[in-house]
């Protein structure tokens, strides 16, 4: 039952919030944090989704940071030229795919209703995961991120995939132009896309979370906006 869960052994550290209602196959939201954060750091975002039936799994990136960002984690290295990032990006995408297989085999999830939600670098991972292993999840929520150019040749796999992509117009970490390029790329490749911009910086807002909740309800229940 979904309300009686203990974390299983997996290739990536993760934390759980079990749903409040009993079910043998739960809709599942997988949270992917941004660079410098952790599974515990993004987990409170789960409380923005007012669903009694939702299993939330927050996943921690495999690469530990040091220096002023000690205690934080990243999904892939940020190096110049950007081509140097591809190896760690693909390694982490493979690790995430393995993790999702473990989740579907080990937890009482509904495999047809698993949704990825990523913020910043986690948004990059969510879009990349759906492109490399379609249809691994039911949909993707990508907040303040972008589609990774390192795997743009795989974007054609996204045809018909549902995605909610949002960005802050005042984002000074990942400029909104990156979000708009992602919007254009996803539209070219036939993604079932909802794109939104908000008057905010590199963060989330009340309005954005309300729209995200509505989109998730539409995806899981077909009763959204």
Structure write-up:
This protein has helices spanning 39-42, 86-106, 121-132, 176-188, 206-221, and strands spanning 14-17, 26-32, 55-59, 63-64, 73-74, 109-119, 139-143, 162-168, 192-198. The chain has 225 residues and is α/β, with parallel strands linked by helices. The strands form 2 sheets. A 7-stranded mixed beta sheet has the order 1-3-2-6-7-8-9, sandwiched between helices. Strands 4-5 form a two-stranded antiparallel sheet. Helix 2 crosses helix 3. The longest helix is centred in the middle third of the chain and has 21 residues, at 86-106. It is globular and about 50 Å long. The chain starts with 13 loop residues before the first strand and ends with a helix. The model has no long low-confidence stretch (mean pLDDT 93).
Q: What is the chains' assembly state?
A: single chain
Computed over alpha carbons, the radius of gyration is 16 Å
Task: Write down the CATH class.
Answer: Alpha Beta
SSE string, helix = H, strand = E? Answer: EEHEEEHEHEEHEH
By CATH, the architecture is named 3-Layer(aba) Sandwich
- Summed over residues and divided by their number, the pLDDT gives a mean of 93
Give a quick set of tags describing it.
29% helix; 5 helices; 22% strand; two-stranded antiparallel sheet; seven-stranded mixed sheet; 225 residues; globular; alpha/beta; Rossmann fold
């Amino acid at each position: 039952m979904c309300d009686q869960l203990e974390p299983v052994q997996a290739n990536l550290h993760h934390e759980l919030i079990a749903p409040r209602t009993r079910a043998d196959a739960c809709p599942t939201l997988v949270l992917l944090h941004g660079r410098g954060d952790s599974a515990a750091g993004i987990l409170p975002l789960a409380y923005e989704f007012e669903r009694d039936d939702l299993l939330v799994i927050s996943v921690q990136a495999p690469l530990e940071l040091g220096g002023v960002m000690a205690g934080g984690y990243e999904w892939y290295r940020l190096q110049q030229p950007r081509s140097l990032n591809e190896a760690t990006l693909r390694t982490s995408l493979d690790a995430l795919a393995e993790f999702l297989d473990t989740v579907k085999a080990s937890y009482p999830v509904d495999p047809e209703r698993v949704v990825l939600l990523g913020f910043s670098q986690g948004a990059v991972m969510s879009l990349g995961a759906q492109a490399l292993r379609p249809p691994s999840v039911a949909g993707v929520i990508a907040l303040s991120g972008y589609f990774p150019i390192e795997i743009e040749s795989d974007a054609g796999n996204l045809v018909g995939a549902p995605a909610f992509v949002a960005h802050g117009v005042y984002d000074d970490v990942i400029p909104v132009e990156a979000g708009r390029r992602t919007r254009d790329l996803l539209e070219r490749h036939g993604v079932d896309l909802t794109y939104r911009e908000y008057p905010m910086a590199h963060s989330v807002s009340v309005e954005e979370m309300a729209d995200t909740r509505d989109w998730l309800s539409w995806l899981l229940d077909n009763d959204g906006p």
